[in-house]
Amino acid sequence: MMSIVKRFRPWIVSGFAIAAILAASPASAQEKSKSLAARFPAEGLAFYLEFDGLTAHAKAWQKTQFHGLLNKTTMGDLARDLARQGAEQIAKSANEDGGGDEFDAKTIERIADDLLRGGFAFGLYMPEGSEEPAPMLVGRNLGKGMDRKTLEAYLPKSDRSETRAGRSMRLRGNGSGPVTWWEKDDVMIVDAAIVDRAVATVEGKGGNAASHPILNGLKGGSAAFEPVARGFVDFARIPLPPQARKLGLDGVRHIEMLGGFEDAQIRTIVRVVAPAPRKGLLSILDGPGFAADGLPPIHPSASGFTAMSIEPGAIFAKITDAIKATDPATGRQIDTFLNQFKTQTGISLVDDVLKAVGPAMSFGTVPERARNGGDMFATVELKDGVAFARTLDKLAPVLAAIVDQALKAQAGPNAGGFEIRKAEGGKAEWVVKLPGGLAPVLEQISPRIRIDKETLIFAFETRSLDMLQQIEARKTPYAFRGDYAFIGQRMPKTTVYLAVQDARTNFPALISSIPMFIQGIDQAAQADGNPPLPIRIDRNQVPSAESMAPFLTPSMVTVSVHPEGIKLDSSASVPSIDSPAAVGVTVALLLPAVQSAREAARRAQCFNNHKQIALAMHNYADANKGFPPMAITGKNGEPLLSWRVALLPYLEQQQLYEAIRKDEPWDSPHNRPLMSRMPAVFACPTNELEPGMTCCRAFVGDGGILEKDKTTPLSTIRDGTSNTIMFAEAAEPVEWMRPEGLPVNAPGLLGLGSKHPGGFVAAFADGSVRFISSRVSPRTLKGLATKDGGEVVSP
After folding, report:
1. pLDDT tens, 262-320?
2. What is the DSSP string of 483-524?
3. In 3-state terms, what secondary structure has residue 13?
4. Residue 451: phi, psi to the nearest 5?
5. Please, are residues 581 and 555 in contact by the beta-carbon 8 Å criterion?
6. Which of 129, 231, 416, 677 stands the most exposed, by the fewest C-beta atoms within 10 Å?
C-alpha cells in the first residue's frame, strides 16, 4: 500500500489540497452523474469516500457564500496563486525523489481541477488472510480531454501491459501492487488483490457498493441539504487489536460521513454508530445533554461561544481506566502524582476539583465590548459552591505558583508576577494578576473569578461578571436571533457540545495572518540554516475584512448523543475554525509552507543527530587513537556488535553500554531485548522505522572509513577528512546493534538514500554534516566513500 500511496502523491496530494482552494473556478453547467459506487465491489469494502464533483452540483455550489467569497473578492486570486505555487513544489519534490523531470506543475493543477469538477471515489478493502488493505481509486472523466501518455506519467509505475476481459491494463512484472486501466473516460487504479472483483463489478457480474446498506442508509440533515460527498468506515471489516477492545472501541459498528450545501452554507454530518449501552471511551460523552433553551449562561453580546455538558470526574475516571488497561506503568504514574499532590496541598484533584464541577460549562468572547483585545468569559456549574470556594482558597496559590514558574521558564524572569488573590470584602471572589513583562497591555487587565451559589463565573471585566450572574440567577435562556436563528432551530435536544463562531470576527483575521504566518515559518527555517521557503504571498491578493463581510455568517458545530450513537453536525458560510472542514481549507491554504517547514524541521533534527554522532566518533578517536572498528568482536574475531554500540559511552549512554554483554552477539537472548532502547540520535524524524532500526550506517573495508577489526587513525584518511564520508543515511535500515556495514563497491548510490526529498544526510570525517543530492554522480560518491582511493572529488 505504501508504494501506491508514494506513487500517487504528486497528484493525490495536489488533488485534495488544490481542489479545496481552486473552487474559485466556475463550475460547469449542472449535469447528473451516476454514483461511482457502482464501479466498486460491495464485498469486503471497509472504507469508502466519494466526492461527486462540483459540476454535478453547480447550482447549489454557486448559491453558497463561500463561492461568492472566492469569486467576488480577491480570495480567489490568492487561492489560485497558492495552488499554483503548491503544485510547483509538489512537482519539484516528486522530480527530486525520482531523479528526473517528468512531473509538471500545470499538469498537476489540471488533474486537481478535473478531480474537483468531475469527482472521484476511493475505497479500501481488507482481503482475507492479509493485514494490508487493498486500495481502489476511480477518477471520473479523468482521462477525458487529456493525452493518455501524459497522464500515465502521474499514475503508478508499471513495466508491462496485459489484456483482461477486453481491457488493456498496466501493471508490474510481479503482478502485485496497483493495476491501472481506463473504463471509458474514468481512470481505474485498483490493487492487484481485488482487480478481478473490480472487473466483474464493472461488467455487472457482482454486487456493487451502490447497493451497500451503509451507503444507502446515509441521511441528510433536511430537505434543503444537497449532499456532495459521502462515505463510511465499516468497523466490521477492520480487525481490531486487543487494546481497542479494552478501550471499548469494539462497540463501534461503523462511521457515516456526509458533506454538502444547505442554505448557502457548507454542512458536514458525521455519525458514529455505536448503540447503547456504550462502554469505555465510547461512553465518555454519555450524560445529560441540553436543548437550545437550556444552555449554560451565555453573554448576550458574545460573538463566539462554546457550551458543554460533561462530567469531568467521570471522564477522568474512564480515561485513567483505559490507560491502566493498556499501559499499567503510566497508570501507576498518574496515581503517584495524584497522591503526591494531595499530600503536598491537601487537595484531591479528583474528588475536590474534577468531581465537584459540571456538567454545564460555557466560555466565549465579547469583541464589541473590547478593551485591550476584547472580553472573555467562562462559567462552570458546581455541585457545592460553598465547598468549592474553600477548595479554591487552597488551590489558587498553588496554581499561581505553577503558572508563574512556567512563565519565567518560558519567557524569562520579567514574565513573572502571576497571582491569584482573594478580592476584598469577604466575597467568594478572586482577582487574577497578569504579569506585564509578557506584554504591557496585560497590566491593564484584571480578570476575576466569582462563585455565586452553584456557579463559578470568570470574566475579564466586572460588568460581564455581573451580567452573567444575573443571567444565571434569573435562568434567562440564550436567544438565537437574526443570523444565529438557524442554530437554535437545528440543535438536537441531546446536545453535549455546541461551538458557535461569527466568521465575520475570526475568518478575516485568519486570512490576513497568512503572510505573517508564512514569514514566521520562513524566518525560523532560515535561522536553522535552511534555505528560504519557496512560497510567497502577494499582499494585494489578501482580501479586506470589508470585502469579505457580505459572504460571512455565524457557524455552528454540535455534538449530540443518541441511543444509536454520537452525531457531529457542522454548518458554516466558510470552513471556519470550529468546523471539521477547517482542516481542509486551512491546510490547503498553508500546505506548501507547512510541508516545507515540517520537513525543514525534521531535516534540521536529522542534521543535529548526525552532528552528535560525529562528535562522539571524534571523542572515541581521541581516547582510542582512531575511529572505532566496524564491530566489537569475539574471541575468535567474529563480529558481535556494531560500532554504534562502541559509541554509547560518548553519547551519554553509559548505563545502556554496561547493560549490553560485549561477549555475546547482538541478537543473543540477553542483548536482543535491549534493541528497543536505541538512542534517539540513531533515528531520523522523517523516516519512521520499527523500534530498534536505524539507517545510520558506515562504509566498511575495501577503502571504507571503518576497518573490520581495528581502529582507523585520522592519519590514514589520505583523501582528506573533509572529502571522506564517516557515516550517512542508508536506503535500507538495519538493527542498530547488528555489525553490518555498507560495501564500497555497491552499484549506483552505494546503498545510500533517505526519506528526505532530494537526497540524504552524511557526516564527514572532519565532523561536518552535509546534505548530498540524490543526483550526485556514482563516481563522485565513490570518491567520498573511500578514505585513501586518491580520487579527485569535484565540489
Report:
1. 989 999 999 999 999 999 888 999 988 999 999 999 999 888 999 999 999 999 999 99
2. GGHHHHHH--TTEEEEEEEEHHHHHHHHHHTHHHHHHHHHHH
3. helix
4. -110, 120
5. no
6. 129
Cβ atoms within 10 Å of 481's Cβ, excluding its own: 9
The answer to whether residue 82 scores a pLDDT higher than 80 is yes
Strand order in the sheet with 759-764: 693-697, 725-735, 759-764, 769-773
CA distance 578 to 308: 14
β-bridge partners, 764 = 725
Convert the pLDDT of each residue in 410-459 to its tens digit. 767 766 678 888 988 778 999 988 876 656 656 677 899 999 999 999 99
Tens-digit pLDDT profile for residues 620-670 = 999 999 999 999 999 888 999 999 999 999 999 999 999 999 999 999 999
- Segment 149-177 mean pLDDT: 80
End-to-end Cα, the chain, rounded Å: 39
Residue bearing cell 451497500: 212
Give 330-344 as a DSSP string: HHHHHHHHHHHHHHH
430's grid cell: 478572586
**Closest listed residue to residue 24, CA positions, set 78, 90, 60:** 78
Q: Do residues 143 and 182 make contact, with C-beta atoms less than 8 angstroms apart?
A: yes
Query: Cell numbers at residue 262, please?
Result: 444547505
Residues 6 or more apart whose CB falls under 8 angstroms from that of 399 comprise: 420
Query: Distance of alpha carbon 520 from its chain centroid, rounded?
Result: 20
- Which class for 468: exposed (0-12), middle (13-18), buried (19 or more C-beta within 10 A)? buried
Using DSSP, state whether 649 is helix, strand or coil: helix
Residue 221 reports pLDDT greater than 80: no
Q: Are 4 and 135 in contact (CB under 8 A)?
A: yes
The 3 state secondary structure assigned to 72-131 is HCCHHHHHHHHHHHHHHHHHHHHHHHHCCCCCCHHHHHHHHHHHHHHCEEEEEECCCCCC
Residue 787 sits at the vertex; the CA angle it makes with 786 and 789, to the nearest 5 degrees, is 65
Are the beta carbons of 612 and 682 closer than 8 angstroms?
A: no
CA distance to 204, 505, 509, 550, 552, per residue, from 545 (Å) = 53, 9, 8, 10, 10
Distance CA 167, CA 183 (A): 8
Question: Grid coordinates 552535509 are at which residue?
Answer: 770
Q: Are 180 and 170 in contact (CB under 8 A)?
A: yes
Reply yes or no: is the peptide bond before residue 328 cis, omega within 30 of 0.
Answer: no
How far, in Å, are 701, 784, 787 from residue 724 at the CA level?
Answer: 14, 5, 6
Angstrom distance (rounded) from CA 207 to CA 42: 6
CA distance 15 to 137: 13
How many residues in total does the chain contain?
795
Q: Is 364 exposed, middle or buried (0-12, 13-18, 19+ CB in 10 A)?
A: buried
CA-derived radius of gyration, the chain: 31
> Of 398, 269, 406, which is closest to residue 345 (Cα–Cα)?
398
pLDDT at residue 442, rounded to an integer: 63
Rounded-to-integer distance, Cα 642 and Cα 631, Å: 5
Cα atoms in the 13 Å half-sphere on the side-chain side of 261: 18
CA-to-CA separations, 112 to 229, 749, 751, in angstroms, rounded: 16, 34, 35
148-180: burial string, b at 16+ Cβ within 10 Å, e else:
eeebeebbbebeeeeeeeeeebbbbeeeebbbb
The position carrying cell 512484472 is 173
In the chain, where are the structural domains located?
316-350, 360-472, 602-785
Element of type H or E holding 465: helix 462-474
